[in-house]
Amino acid sequence: MSETDRGDFRARIRRNFARQAAMQTIGAALTRVEHGVVEIELPFDVKLTQQHGILHAGIISAALDSACGFAAYSLIDPEASILTIEFKVNLMSPGRGERFLFRGEITKPGSTIIVADGRGYAISDGPAKLIASMTGTMMVIRGREGITG
Amino acid sequence: MSETDRGDFRARIRRNFARQAAMQTIGAALTRVEHGVVEIELPFDVKLTQQHGILHAGIISAALDSACGFAAYSLIDPEASILTIEFKVNLMSPGRGERFLFRGEITKPGSTIIVADGRGYAISDGPAKLIASMTGTMMVIRGREGITG
Amino acid sequence: MSETDRGDFRARIRRNFARQAAMQTIGAALTRVEHGVVEIELPFDVKLTQQHGILHAGIISAALDSACGFAAYSLIDPEASILTIEFKVNLMSPGRGERFLFRGEITKPGSTIIVADGRGYAISDGPAKLIASMTGTMMVIRGREGITG
Amino acid sequence: MSETDRGDFRARIRRNFARQAAMQTIGAALTRVEHGVVEIELPFDVKLTQQHGILHAGIISAALDSACGFAAYSLIDPEASILTIEFKVNLMSPGRGERFLFRGEITKPGSTIIVADGRGYAISDGPAKLIASMTGTMMVIRGREGITG
């Protein structure tokens, strides 16, 4: 990692997002990266649905977890990494829409534990509709073999 | 639905699992259906990983949510359906292994609210390793347009 | 209940708060009641602590649950009631301070399920410090014996 | 701490339980301490109720959190301590009964993060009734000022 790259959390987050094969599998794109805030967008795709034709709760969780986790990345040293310890997701409205926006924001920074909150929205013609929320607990990892980036 | 089908929760669960496109997308198979217990298995696939090469937490959540939700299906009338209200997932060990087993079990049945607990295991040569747990709250849905099966 | 009382959610919430003996036991006061928002305050008391001398997580949960639950009361018919189905609490900083403020706010209203989010703050001389958050799922109860008010 | 006391987790847990003033305030007793399992019992007391006359969810959380936290204590060095990072509680049946039993058990030990699961039961004449469950994430604390024991 070059000297000029140190602290460039945006580049690091984009690089790590690109390495999350699961995000490509579900068709998600990283659309906003700020200090403490990350957004991920996802077009509706029937291959992501459950039996009622709406977005599967696990897909919603995947996008929210990545948004929350990368929001945590924006706070840490370039040598550190983030692992999700746990999260809770509330599904508030059926995941129907043309596309979906998932925002993760840091609620509580910390040197070891970071708490992030996420919101998911369905977007069609009208105003965005809140479909889900997440609260996630993330751990900052340093020097653990196999867990870098 | 024919008379002989009434109460055949196994067939209903298999039919609904087959309609969950997200389960096909991640390569999951329904491997056990009992009254109050459902198991789903998943081979490791690099397309399901996050940046450290382990199973993405959202994929773990997808399989656990389906296992818990279908465990709830095993308790309800054929005309009713199940929606997940919320769940919490703890990621306890990295999702590394040849394949994964996800079991959902009913902790508290109910006419409106059903609580299920799930466990996820990584399986390679040795003993299965606990990688994740879920507690999910499911709602029994009756007569809501667009939500059947 | 008199005709003029219909819809007076503030009076109903105050009456129900007064009937929560647990709130009196911990010394909590209802300090704000708006449509969708309720605040509860609590002076520090050594009798509410855990072994490190900070507020016990269960006491924090009690105040947040009441704040979230009564925020839900502000949305429902006078004949209905609210039961907490589940909640998640994150403890973000030690519960140290002269007094504590707990705010519950409605995130998603609903005829059966209401989702509320709560935040707890420690207050001393300086600015309020975020110590905890809650996401709670509440059920609207109608016509169940023994569950009124 | 004397040499003979090293590793005597039962004595340490009893001592720390006795220092949790909140447990005395709610009338809880530590009734079982094993490696990885702790039980706390509580007689019904009207002063612990919410508006429907049942045990307040926060009181249930307090007892479950202490049971889970002390179960984590049974795994750690005498010099270390435990802080709850977060928990989720499901309230499955109204907290009615003569007394209540709360059991915390370790699901996943760890050097930094310990995951515990708890169950709460109401006990009267008949069989114990499951009223609540908890999954809690605990952090092992070492060398942090003001957090010992």
TrEMBL record, chains A, B, C, D:
The keyword Lipoprotein does not apply. SUPFAM superfamilies: Thioesterase/thiol ester dehydrase-isomerase. Its EC number is 3.1.2.20. The keyword Hydrolase applies. Keywords: Hydrolase. GO terms for molecular function: fatty acyl-CoA hydrolase activity. It holds the Pfam family 4HBT. InterPro entries: HotDog_dom_sf, PAAI_dom, Thioestr_dom. Residues 52-123 form the Thioesterase domain. It catalyses: a medium-chain fatty acyl-CoA + H2O = a medium-chain fatty acid + CoA + H(+); a fatty acyl-CoA + H2O = a fatty acid + CoA + H(+); a long-chain fatty acyl-CoA + H2O = a long-chain fatty acid + CoA + H(+). PANTHER family: 1,4-DIHYDROXY-2-NAPHTHOYL-COA THIOESTERASE 1, MEDIUM_LONG-CHAIN ACYL-COA THIOESTERASE YIGI. Belongs to the YigI thioesterase family. This is Medium/long-chain acyl-CoA thioesterase YigI. It comes from Rhizobium etli (strain ATCC 51251 / DSM 11541 / JCM 21823 / NBRC 15573 / CFN 42).
